[in-house]
Amino acid sequence: MDWAGWGLFGLVATAALTAALITAQLAGLTRLDLPLVLGTVVTEDPDRARVVGFFMHLCAGQGFALGYAATFALLHRATWWIGALLGMLHVGIALTVLLPLLPGVHPRMASQRAGLTSTAVLEPPGLFAVNYGVQTPTVAAVIHVIYGIVLGLLLQAD
After folding, report:
1. How far is the C-alpha of 66 from the C-alpha of 115, rounded, in Å?
2. What's 158's DSSP letter?
3. Where do the structural domains in the chain lie, given as residue ranges?
4. pLDDT (tens digit, 0 to 9) for every residue of the chain, 158 residues total?
5. Phi, psi at residue 122, to the nearest 5°?
């Protein structure tokens, strides 16, 4: 497996994904703020949460990059299109499994059943994260495909 590539290019791909997400937020295409969502797991302050969440996101990106690198190694092939397919699989799991389960464990996120007495500061993402905007699934798919393409182009299959 390409260990050096994984270490460096996982960060590059995660930075590309994060930059694309921030660009989409600034363009008004989505309200999904992954660093805020992740960081508010450990702190209430939104400014601190974004900083902490950014580093949590980098770590998660490295973990996913390890999975991509292992897949490329198993296939004995690393290409942009395999990376794109893995990105689609990645976003499919994130939008249909991971994000919808998050309210069950996130201390500051409301659930779909939260009532008027809820003190949660974050709304639940819902299926496909559509609670953060109807274009969020498309934005998420595009940025995860970018992530996969970057890894597919930069990692060696070894």
Report:
1. 40
2. -
3. 3-111+121-154
4. 778 888 899 999 998 898 899 899 999 999 999 999 999 999 999 999 999 999 999 999 999 999 999 999 999 999 999 999 999 999 999 999 999 999 988 888 888 776 555 667 788 898 899 999 999 999 999 999 999 999 999 998 77
5. -120, 140
